[in-house]
Write a structure and sequence with these properties.
124 residues; alpha+beta; two-stranded antiparallel sheet; 4 helices; extended; MeTrfase_capping
Length: 124
């Protein structure tokens, strides 16, 4: 289609999610900040027992939209720079539909990974 196979083969999205401890260590080593608060906030869609249960159609649509927006925020510029803005726009226009289909076929999958809540304090 619109994208050359060679361009796809040479495109990589390096993704690494550090642990809270790694994040604190890096901030402590390279900045004048400390990290007084750092914790993982689990934004699972389920009951208080942590088990994910069947969700209604509108929730699934909202989750798919949110995943699409998050993907565009994180990867939009990289995709646009590599393949062109029009191609990136088309990809992220289609992304929520693909996420929705994934949630339909994998109903117990969390929509988003856990989120880190971090407070940085400027050191004197």
């Amino acid at each position: 289609g619109k994208v050359k196979e060679d361009d796809l083969d040479s495109f990589q999205l390096p993704i690494y999610s550090p642990t809270i401890e790694e994040f604190k260590e890096i901030v402590g080593n390279i900045s004048s900040f400390s990290v007084p608060v750092a914790q993982i906030v689990d934004l699972h869609h389920g009951d208080d027992d942590g088990k994910t249960h069947e969700i209604c159609e509108s929730d699934r649509c909202e989750r798919a939209r949110d995943v699409g927006l998050a993907a565009r925020a994180v990867f939009g510029d990289m995709v646009g720079n590599k393949f062109g803005r029009d191609t990136a726009d088309e990809l992220f226009r289609r992304f929520p539909e693909a996420a929705y289909e994934y949630f339909v076929t994998h109903p117990n999958t969390p929509s988003l990974p856990p989120t880190a809540f971090v407070v940085l304090k400027k050191e004197d």
